[in-house]
Amino acid sequence: MKRPLFIGSEIYRGSSYGGWHPLRVPRVSTVMDLSRALGWLPTQAYVPSPRAKPDTLTVWHTPDYVAALHAAEVAQHVSDTVKARHALGTPSNPVFPEMYRRPATAAGGSLLAGELLAKGGIVYHPAGGTHHGMPDRAGGFCYLNDPVLAILSLRQNGARRVAYIDIDAHHPDGVEVAFGDDTDVLMVSVHEDGLWPRSGPTGVTGQGSTINLAVPRGLHDDDMALIRDHVILPHVASFKPDAIVLQCGADGVEEDPQAHLSLSNQAHWSIVQSIMGLASRLLVLGGGGYNPWSVGRLWTGVWGTLNGFAIPDRMKTESETILRNLRFDGNRRGKNPPDHWFTTLADSPRHGPISDEVRRRVNAL
Fold it and tell me: Out of 86, 131, 132, 268, which one is annotated catalytic?
């Protein structure tokens, strides 16, 4: 593979979880549009995501759950029994028109990524990162667990040891369920302490292969740099992975309405840059992120970082128009957004003294 590949789909453009759900906002389509407007996404770099067939999903999900998810999309309704068993039709995991096709497309992209990376390279799949899905039930807006499927696909295609890094504000409980005791999968998660699903306390488990760092509210770029240099990079380097999967959820940025961290998008880009070259295969996924401006800018910058493109100081008119046309109705963060959300991908780094509590938790690892 001579250049990074971008897996995307038009299904995300018109699909929404509902009028007031956190995932009512456009995300992947914004990244696709911005990347093209910047001249960063030529036709030869773009790979349309396939939709995973039900039998391919049962490599981890139960046949009953996959069948229930498919049936719920067709009927646009679930019974109380299905809701109780599979957590479908809940406020977090609602019934909506593409409730099977959309996650199956994300899952198909992650399965394809493992195949595309069989001989090495870089793949970016911003629609991926749904790390809360469980084998028999949905969880936390995640109907399927595409990071688990990506890791399984990478292993099927020759990567024996896989490092999974997760910098989403939420703990990847589904991924830990899948690989918590698998010493050929290293999981390093940095997530907000006490945030849903309220799992992943700081510590090392799984015979040393599962590393959770629950961080306090207000984590800023300098705190994350310490974590990068003293937790993420040393553990990944010593593990010597054949492949790395980075879940790059954008909900840790200061403007996100769901979490309480204070990172800039540059903290995420720095981690992307630092892990490039640590393995011959790199897959970068999206994840959380519920402010349409910050997630669109952050994930577009991830694609630029993977390609070595310079982040522009000022957007082109076409790119700026894309951002100015976004809406965030019903949320205070969407009222009178600052002008720099429209005019540049980068925001100001969030500097400050490194928290004593962050140091203590880092040292505990």
Answer: 132
